[in-house]
């Protein structure tokens, strides 16, 4: 016990001395820490209004306390639970369909020899990420309209006789949201995987070739095991964010006809808080969702530790 304590104390001392020796570099972090403190930690005081009846004529200090009343109202609000169902449905579909596409795409790009084709594929796949949902949403609204590109293609190949506005069909919204999100983010999602694969020692592949392993075997036994930590990290982030659907996408694609299937928790909080002015209720919803997300993060981290020889990638 004493040896362990001495070793820990010495390790801390070494880190402290290293910090002092690099104080010029370490001081460059201070603006970021100050920004985080001012805009992320100080606003946490505003969470108290989740337990108050707050209006614009009150201050957070003078607003009357209502305890857990806002949370009781949430549990009986059918519109909130509709938003929860939509959020989980869209997020789970994105996870089931979209999580593996960047991995598959990254492996294909990695296996292509360096050249113009590889650069073109990377550029084309990355490009949608840099376009805002205002631009992409406008494109989708046009393409999916009655006389839009999508209907024109379907009519050209004889699949349909007459076009319809697909965004007005609530039953189609989930798949539209999922596929459009994959289109926008799949290419960008390959960056971490490509960066990880670029650090794999080429001698592993050379040894596998000598042993007679084909390309599929090399990917299965070398590439994917090397990607396991980053795959685990992305899985943790995706599952912990299941209740946080893309607000920008929802606000652009949602309309009065598909709102029953497109209203997600983030848009519900936005509507209740900023549109209807019920700040206490919106804060209570946001706080509850944040707590559930933290629980999901802890559970997912625990499960991924079992996949990585009891080693955590975040905690």
UniProtKB/TrEMBL annotation:
ABC transmembrane type-1 domain boundaries: 84-300
GO biological process assignments: transmembrane transport
SUPFAM superfamilies: MetI-like
Annotated membrane topology: Multi-pass membrane protein
Primary location recorded for the protein, binned into one broad class: membrane
One Pfam family linked to the record: BPD_transp_1
Key word Plastid present: no
Top-rank taxon: Bacteria
GO CC terms in record: plasma membrane
Location(s), subcellular: Cell membrane
Alphabetized InterPro entries for the sequence: MetI-like, MetI-like_sf, UgpAE/MalFG_permease
Transmembrane segments: 28-51, 88-110, 130-150, 224-244, 279-303
Key words, A-Z: Cell membrane, Membrane, Transmembrane, Transmembrane helix, Transport
PANTHER family associated with the record: BLL4140 PROTEIN
Family in the record: Belongs to the binding-protein-dependent transport system permease family.
Identification of the protein by name: Sugar ABC transporter permease
Species assigned in the record: Vagococcus allomyrinae
């Amino acid at each position: 016990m004493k040896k362990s304590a001495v070793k820990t104390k010495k390790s801390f001392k070494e880190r402290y001395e290293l910090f002092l020796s690099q104080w010029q570099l370490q001081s460059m972090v201070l603006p970021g820490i100050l920004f985080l403190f001012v805009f992320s930690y100080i606003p946490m005081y505003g969470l108290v209004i989740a337990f108050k009846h707050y209006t614009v004529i009150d201050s957070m200090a003078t607003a009357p306390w209502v305890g857990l009343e806002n949370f009781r109202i949430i549990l009986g609000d059918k519109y909130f639970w509709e938003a929860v169902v939509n959020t989980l449905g869209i997020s789970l579909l994105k996870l089931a369909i979209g999580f593996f596409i960047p991995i598959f795409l990254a492996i294909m790009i990695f296996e292509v020899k360096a050249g113009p084709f590889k650069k073109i594929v990377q550029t084309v796949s990355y490009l949608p990420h840099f376009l805002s949902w205002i631009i992409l949403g406008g494109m989708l609204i046009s393409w999916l309209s009655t006389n839009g590109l999508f209907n024109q293609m379907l009519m050209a190949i004889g699949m349909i006789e007459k076009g319809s506005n697909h965004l007005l069909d609530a039953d189609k919204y989930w798949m539209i949201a999922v596929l459009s999100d994959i289109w926008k983010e799949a290419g960008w999602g390959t960056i971490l995987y490509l960066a990880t694969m670029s650090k794999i020692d080429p001698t592993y592949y050379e040894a596998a070739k000598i042993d007679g392993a084909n390309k599929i075997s090399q990917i299965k036994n070398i590439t994917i095991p090397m990607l396991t930590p980053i795959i685990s990290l992305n899985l943790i982030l995706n599952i912990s964010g299941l209740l946080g659907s893309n607000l920008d996408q929802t606000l652009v694609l949602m309309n009065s006809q598909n709102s029953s299937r497109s209203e997600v928790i983030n848009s519900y909080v936005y509507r209740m808080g900023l549109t209807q002015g019920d700040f206490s209720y919106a804060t209570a919803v946001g706080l509850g969702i944040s707590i559930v997300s933290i629980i999901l993060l802890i559970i997912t981290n625990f499960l991924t530790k079992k996949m990585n020889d009891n080693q955590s990638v975040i905690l």
